[in-house]
Structures are given as C-alpha cells and as structure tokens.
Amino acid sequence: MSMTAGFFDEADALIRLIPQSKSTHTIGFTGGEPTLAGDRFLDTLRLTKVLLPRTKVHILSNGRCFSDAKFAQRYTGIDHPDMTVGIPLYSDNTSDK
To answer: Residue 35 and residue 24: Cα distance in Å, rounded?
Structure first.
C-alpha cells in the first residue's frame, strides 16, 4: 500500500491496538518515504506519542523533507522524548564511477 491517507488511517488503527505497557520498546516507520505524507504522517507521530508515551519511535527517512523549515518545525513541535530519524548514508552516485 502506498503512503496515502488510507495507509496512515490503518497505521493509526494498529497503533490503537498496541497495549500501553513497557513491553513495546520501539515502533518504526519506514516504507516508501513516510515524510512525503507531510502533516498526515506527523498526525500519526502525535498519536503515537499520546498512546505510547514510553515507546521509542524510529523513522527511516531520506531526510529531504527536513530541508523544509516549516516541516522541520512541525516535526520538532511533536516533542516526543525518544524519537529519532535514521538517514542512510549510502547512495548510488553515478558521478563517482
């Protein structure tokens, strides 16, 4: 399923099913590129913070959306105590060949 509103609706429903306990150590978001969904993705992160406040959140991203200052401000405004973005440092750079 692509990263559409329907995808995040389903993700939100699944997050609501996760027990609020210390046993859920980490939840990860990856896929195509979750940040391309913009505010819809941020809504899911906010929901995760509210429902799973002790769960670490890891986002796998290419990081490009964070160059948009407004998006970056909205992301930091979530203020989750343990949320990280993993940005892979590998790529296919044809100019290096």
So the answer is: 23
Higher-pLDDT residue of 78 and 32 is 78
Determine how many CB atoms are found less than 10 A away from the CB of residue 60: 15
Note the pLDDT of residue 21. Answer: 76
Residue type, 51: L
| Sequence-separated (6 or more) residues with CB below 8 Å from residue 35 | 41, 59, 61, 64, 65, 66, 71
This prediction's pTM: 0.85
Q: Which residues contact 65 (CB under 8 A, 6 or more apart)?
A: 33, 35, 36, 38, 71
CB 76 within 8 A of CB 46: no
Residue 44 and residue 23 in contact, taking contact as beta carbons nearer than 8 Å? no
Do the Cβ atoms of 51 and 15 come closer than 8 Å?
yes
Report the distance separating Cα 26 and Cα 46, nearest Å.
15
